[in-house]
Structures
1.
Amino acid sequence: MHIPDGYLSPATCGVFGAVMIPIWTAASKAVRKTLSVRQVPYLAIGAAFSFVIMMFNVPIPGGSTGHAVGGVLVAILIGPWAACIAVTVALVIQALLFGDGGITAIGANCFNMAFVLPFVGYYVYKLISLNSPAGSNRRIIAAGAGAYAGISLAALCAGIEFGLQPLLYHKANGQALYSPYGLNVAVPAMVLGHLLVFGWVEVIVTALVVKYLQKQNSVFFEGGRS
Amino acid sequence: MTLTRKLWTGIGAFIILSPLGLILPDHFKAGSAWGEWGVEEIQKMTGYVPQGLQRLSERWKAPLPDYTFQGWEGQDLLHLSFAYIISAVAGIAIIAGIALFIGKVLAKEHE
């Protein structure tokens, strides 16, 4: 889901950069209000977790690869705004140090994976878990459902961003200037890959870690926003 | 053992296992992620290289491109796995450092 340089037009990149600036500002304000000193290590662990889980490329035999993002789990544990910051740090370092995701596409990639993914996942989790006890199985199911919804919606966004490019930017002879595949190809490719394969990695990792943490420290799940 | 220490141990386990993210796609003959093809791959798939993509792509020379050392692209899986683990350690050290710094600046002394 890491859109490389050259796949999105400079204008598209500019739009997503402009969209992310107020989101990052809001995130730092929200985190300033809610993050306590003892939670700071979890922000670092969350960012590290997101980074390393994205290294586990899962193959579709003979096809493409994909991976989990881990952002929904981080959102469940320390809130979606803190998760936005944690995943953003991971994505920026991936682009700069490893060339994974474009420098120009940082705004779009952060919109998909550091904003849409944790927020959709978090609110689906909240909606399903409601006031269920901190140690309940319902919270595990809610976490899994949130993970699935979050990564699927993020993949849909990426698919739309890819797919709009040849519509908006092409030469007179029909050749695309940037990403060459339209919505009819990009959206199904991104969404189906994540619905059928990669999303399940996000579900399993999120549910397992929530189950583990329920036993370790229920403070993460009391009232949800710890 | 404190919970944060347990969780960091878990991250350490993920780092050691991370080469699975190279080995499994290789074993199952899977290619790039969708939309993350190199210029040559696009040329093969569509018969041309989009002009703007050609101009903007691969301009940035990452220090550890694709989680390996520069010039190691053709190495065998053992070497690539080694570089992958080094990349994971380096990436996590930097990311955790930045996140700790941001957290310290933002977090307040409240419970």
2.
Amino acid sequence: MTGLNMLAGWTTVGDMIMIEQMPIFGGYTGGIEETAICDVATTLGSFACFSGNFHLDGPIHIRWGVTTAKETLQVAAYAAAAIDQNTDLLLANQYYPMAGPCTEMCLLETAAQAIVDTASGRELLSGSAAAKGVVQDKTTGMEARIMGVASEATCGMKISDVNEILNKLVPSYECNYTNAPAGKTFQECYDVKTVKPTKEYLEVYDKAVAQLKDFGLDIKH
Amino acid sequence: MTARNYIDVYETYDRFAEGKKVSEKEWDYTIIPRNAQMMKERYEIDFGRTILPTDQDLVDRLFIAGVDMLITTGIFNPDLGTALSIEEDEIYEGLKMAPKKLKLGRGKDKCSCKARRGNTLRKPVIQGGPTGAPVSEGIFTQMIESYAQEPTVDTIVSGVLNTVDGHPASTNTPWEIKATMAEVRYNREATRRAGRPGMCI
């Protein structure tokens, strides 16, 4: 009830309301299609009953605890496309990759979700909580850089072409889920005084971009 | 039937208060899986192998399945142990109230979040940040600055301070409030340090 009471206050003073919800694939909602149906239903409910101004999604995998698995990407893509094609609602998604910062896997996971969210018509991409968002200080601005760059490169592409990229990209990191690199902390990835990324992370980033280009994503800069 | 009016938070509370009694166990283990499975079959929802949908009719059926799921199932309130119900017209009335465009931030750092409709050339808003991941007090501002200084980032999403003044920011204690206020200050300071003081947080 606390949430409803706070919502009453926020709506009364005219605050912007974001409603967040993370459907769990493999949980009570069941399989991919059932989870997507519940995702659509709860997204609509957030606007119809809770005065939402935009909705923050985050389909999460019950086994891996990530948003970047093929199944959760499918849930997010289909739910977003269904709502996007039938309404003008503002839709967002959040990012929980498996691998930690300063690893190619983390950047590829983040890019894959950015590609999916962009192509399925979402309006806002929110992330990224690397290392599943549970390890202290294991998030940095470089993951947001790849999220933005991958999104920009995807805008306007044909969906069939995007699917071809995803068919190569997603398996390239999913095979490492049982042995994902833990990555490094912010303090190890950046000079904390100047807030500049380390040479090591820049090199890892360039390798991930090269990999994305090999898969067919036309990243300009 | 056309909706009497838009369902606001007060109407939502009343519907919960007068809603059908249901246990959390029944909701989680019976009602949700049974209804979701029923909708999947009723609307013949099968995604196949592609990650992004290419079948427009399937996408439309999924939308209708979601609407039907909400009407058939309602929304559960675990505190009251009740479920509210909602009609189809009331759902669409609520969707009409939702904004199609939001202005985020202020001044030169303001950005616009507008309905895109498919994979248009206009990129989505990029909200950079730890997305609720735990962050040390000593580097909180610098970490947020690392997002704010990225040209592709439009707005900031905060992390969570583990401690405030060295004290654990425990849930449901005054320290939680102090930590939240500190997060707001650190986030704003980070956007200033990045030269983008009007960025939306």
3.
Amino acid sequence: MNLKTSFGMATALALIMAGGATAETITIATVNNGDMIRMQGLTDDFTAKTGHEVEWVTLEENVLRQRVTQDIATRGGQFDIMTIGMYETPIWGRQDWLVSLDDLPADYDIDDILPAMRGGLSVDGTLYAAPFYGESSMIMYRTDLMEAAGLEMPRAPTWDFVADAARKMTDRDNEIFGICLRGKAGWGENMAFLTATSNAFGARWFDENWNPQFDSPQWKETLTFYLDLMNDAGPPGASTNGFNENLSLFQQGRCGMWIDATVAASFVTNPNDSTVADKVGFALAPDTGLGKRGNWLWAWALAIPAGTQKVDAAKEFIQWATSKEYLELVAANEGWANVPPGSRTSLYENPEYQKVPFAQITLDSINSADPTNPTVDPVPYVGVQFAAIPEFAGIATLVGQEFAAALAGQQTVEEALEKAQALTRDEMEAAGYL
Amino acid sequence: MARAVSTQQKTINTVLAWAIGLLIFFPILWTILTSFKTEAQAINDPPLFLFFDWTLENYAIVQERSDYMRFLWNSVIIAGGSTIVGIIIAVPAAWSMAFVPSKRTKDILLWMLSTKMLPAVGVLYPINLIFIQLGLLDTRTGLVIIMMLINLPIIVWMLYTYFREIPGEILEAARMDGAGLRDEILYVLTPMAIPGIASTILLNFILAWNEAFWTLNLTAAKAGPLTAFIASYSSPEGLFFAKLSAASTMAIAPILILGWFSQKQLVRGLTFGAVK
């Protein structure tokens, strides 16, 4: 046997041995936000390690949601990995639409995933989606305006303090509004905020028998408080403001306080985009002393649809993208402030990450939200700012329209709640819950 | 006799036409301007019109992040392919309806148009399932077929209207001279209806280029046209207006240029008949 033949045989043997891991091309559907775009830019690292190529389909959040639902429900098989949230995961997992992720190898360290995230992405203890990044909500406030109002923001304020501060900070002549809150109708817009807030006021969507609770005094108190506060200290036209509109107002220096996603902290403190970058403080979302804070919990997570033919390659990608090594890769390339937050405990134990100004408050916010026990009184559903049942998105969008109409001054609190109660009851009856 | 139009009336008409034209064009102009701003300038209050630091940064980022040429090529194939196939089917159909109408021609025309009144989402799942069965999901062939089908009623209607303007006697004369059906359509009818056909082609191309429901719902990583390219820059959680504007400008540029060069033809076709 000559040297050339020996080399040839050795190469062939090596290829056969490596044959178990054939290179595949996987298609991933994802949303357009900073962390996801950064991941797309780092995909070469994954390809170099595994040989698998990645094709991305980036869509706006609502379009993505509709697109992946359509694909998974019809078994279209267009995507090998889908970016889904905490709302879809338990519903789809229960339907067996997703591949279980319980068999990830030991070095992935599944126990390192933050307990609140793991709980929200599991069904009966089985993990169906791995969190890529997680968020809660918190207060972002202007330290200079707070000082000028003669107040000091506690780390864990009450709603009464926030309302009082908002009214004192408001200076309509100079177009400074004490508080900016979501008002735009939608289950993921005003209803995410109001549902989380209602938890702090002791309200709930349903009692243990799925009876809607909008006729309860707690919901009346929640909505009245919100409308009074927005009328006194909110920006004009707030009924069309969502995350982006409020972000824009805050960055322009128009808001004294803004209660929204923790992910916004990196935007408002970025001097390239924000005119108030060096005057922002953070605090936990407010409570009313009943034991629940008005902060939500959300994760954008990676899941594998049951119809895909490339489960192994997809799992390899999820391992890579949600690993501790990936966080280090981002830190090495773009700095610790740009690491996707809210997924792993070890990140918050890292001394380098602890230097990021909003790291600890983000962790504390996430830890103070409990999706399996979200309300003061018991409820039959999972989810802080939503109820993880398929009907919720449709119902909450309709309810959100009623609340937005009340904010716009088109109807009273009583009328909005009465309509919300009636339409929720109708939908729940039609869906067979009642 | 032509109506006498005073100079004053003419001036008013011109000013009015310009005002309406600018009003319609303003959103496109604003998108183009925003694409040259930074993200912070894009949301500046008060809005910045012309006096800001112009930058090409957004175009560079969009170019780096997305394979623009692939989306553009898909758009050209889908819009062009559906237009060609549509015209091949619609010309004979419109000919028969215009020159050899039956008792039911009017009903058929109305029925064809009625399919446009159905919200597209109503047939999304059936179409999706059919596409899965036929292996057409995320293929340009599938999108050519669907674009052709959804625009066919409009093409047939437009061509039918143009053909009705052509006197039947001319076709009769051609027949007397021994022209067969094929020759009659190809050598007599088509040349006479060229302005109408050209504007139909243009309009159909623009409609297929801009269509964003089916192109988003039936594509994934391979066949997505420029509408999918724009959609990938939209975000409810993060202010990316400048990048979104850059992507939009890149997506509308080809069709804007095409429209600019063919506007004479388009106007002539759309007013075909009335100026004769």
4.
Amino acid sequence: MDLRFPKEEPTLAEVQALDAVLGESLVVEGWQRERGGAHLAADQRPHLLAALHALQNRVGWVSPGGLGELCRRLDVPPAEAYGVASFYAMFSMEERPARVVHVCADLACQVLGAGALLDAVQAECGNPSQTGVPGAWQPSPCLGLCERGPAILVTEAGDPAHEAVIAPAIATDVAVALRVGPKGLGAEAPVVAAVPQAATPQGAAELVLLKRVGVVDPSSLDDYRAHGGYEALRAAFAMGPTGVIREVTDSNLVGRGGAAFPAGRKWAAVAAQPVRTHYLVCNADESEPGTFKDRVIIEGDPFSLIEAMTICAFATGCEQGFVYLRGEYPRALEHLQHAIDAAHDRGFLGANVMGLGFAFDITIVRGAGAYICGEETAIFNSIEGYRGEPRSKPPFPVEVGLFGKPTVVNNVETLVNVLPIVLNGGPAYAAIGTAGSSGTKVFCVSGAVANAGVYELPFGATLRELIDLAGGVPNGRSLKAVLLGGAAGSFVRADEIDFPLTLEGARAHNTTLGSGVVMVLDDTVDLPTFLRRIAAFFRDESCGQCVPCRVGTVRQEEALIRITLGPRSAAQHEADLTILRDVGRAMRDASICGLGQTAWSAIESAIDRLGALQ
Amino acid sequence: MTSIYETPVGLPRRAVSIQINGEEVKVSEGATILDACKAHGTDVPTLCYGDTLDPVNACRVCVVEVEGNRVLVPSCSRKVEPGMVINTDNERTRHSRKMVLELLGSSVDLSAAPMVAGWNDQYQADPTRFGESKTVKQSVKIDNDLYVRDYSRCILCYKCVDACGEQWQNSFAISVAGRGFNAHISTEFDVELPDSACVYCGNCVEVCPTGALMFKTEHDMRVADTWDESAQQQTTTICPYCGVGCSLTLHTQDNTIVKVTSPHESAVGSGNLCIKGRFGFQHVQTLKHN
């Protein structure tokens, strides 16, 4: 390619930031670099996302000079790199203050007063995204800190960049964060605070996947091994790849990311592909509002994910694994990177895992603020350095996945389930739960409950039992509705909560468990505002590729705003309800991916089940 | 049309039996549903489909129902499988097509997309039903003498990006930028074309289905209200510039060349030209010396 690059020059800071992730280019004179080494840069495109993070983290935005330098190094056309950078919410394409406070405006935090917080921040700190001030603030989609909202994330570009979260936050916290930055803020709550069951001995005894959270030191490989770590991998090596796949198949484990696809079938399909290389992608991009289970697992027990991924790779013949971690999780990133480095140093990852002649490595790819990248094919495009747009299926990832090769994509929770399966056998695992839903499930309980957090229960408990376990609706208020499965899920009424939280139970009640979101709404929740936020979320997060979703999510939000805010005649009201249904049906039928196909589900269920918008 | 250099010489393709709207149809393996529909004489509307480009299945106007699939499938890209039962024209597919036409029509100026008005009638689409609503309306970008970019007419079919990029020109001057409703075709940081990697081959203009990319001559004549396709003649000839021998179709009005296209079935360039063939026509008609 004969590329043409922007005429703007990078700054020294930008060059250094790129050096740190891409390696130094030839130094000719001071920091002036040799140009034109592009032919050496073949297959550098997958470094694009990390390089964009490096620029953003160092100078607070992606400048024309910085982008041009990045394109020269990676041999990427500037227009394409611009297209990729402008796709992600975390990259600013305009100069802005180095310090930015992201105030969560999303669903779970809204139940906990995010609306009032945003108003107070506006009053105390002025308009969002001002220039010429030390820090800017902006409303943000879900930060995944739903158990202790309303939450804020503070980022500060520099060398090194800093990030911190405060949750729950008040307006004064935002003002202080704008003044002092993330370094001046207090320590984050311990991870185990997100697991209320761990507080009591009988609660802790129920935990399988979360049993080590708060018990082991997440930074210590020795502590992990002292608590049963790497026993499963040893057992997996003993039973061989086909043995592992047989146990996973016998366990009836299904994917926990929302689609509930049988894990054993996926693994067997990849293992059987004669094409090499095989890749493993761990989907840790949980961005569904109200989902935070993967964060708790990674922060509290990162080695368990590494061990589980190693077992999966061994069974399916993968040589390289990727963890696609959502960008808004600074602590999870730190813990997981440390754990991968430690496992590598000690021979649990690398060319010869545990001295058994099996090679496997894991790379973390940090997301940059795009819900759509949790879609199983969008995640490939994002890792490869392209816009995170979903691909057309078929072909499916097990045949043509990452870099066009057979790929296993599994959610964090799905993968860590493999440890008890391998240790205790597939049939023993299948005996837990119900006939149609085996094993335990991690639920993310948020909103109007006394003790929000992640709860792990064998499949079969009812929604009422789960809400009671979380302490019920506090302060004498009453339950109004529960949003199951997040923004892409559906509402159930207060009088409908006696069904079992299983795949078949949810299906029979015409709802979905999705990724395990249980967002509890009490009688003080302003339902129209809540629904408008759902519509705004999808409008914001649509990738824009297909017409039904790109325009449909906008028309859906417009109709919802007219219905809930405007003075309307009965005829206009009916016409707008018809628009919602017509647009919703087309989004469900004709969108490329699950985002568009579910963008109307929650609002539809609010109309049909809760009687909203009447 | 396949070029002589690409004529497949591999194993013969097997015939696959499928059902379209209740009728048994045999098509060759590897064909798309759209290919099968065309061969069968079944009309399926398309917007983002390009006969010389890989399908991106973004517009979703060509969706059909395939039995056993939870959602509708894009006929332009889905390959036929033995035994597929396809319905191209039932209430469900008509609803999605109508909605795609309404959603696009309410946000984009489709007046220069020739087929859309007929489809709106056929599917009873009413793009005005949303009332006051968000559109992509913006001013026309005129930053060079050869072609203009009117993104008020852009449906984001990706064809210009693919024609500029690795499928044809390898210039990579433009890309889709932004996200969701704010997604748009852009150079890096939206710099003007003369500052971009554009080489003015005009292959993006060739594939644009809605007139968002237009010869400057056509744009100026439309503004002056002198553009009259019924008074135009098309003459296919060979480009005189070099030895490649690309086919040109000269569009003339009042004996003046107003735009140049290239036949997509041409074995030489498949509709692609360079700046000379596409825009270098002034010398044949600037005869008067002032």
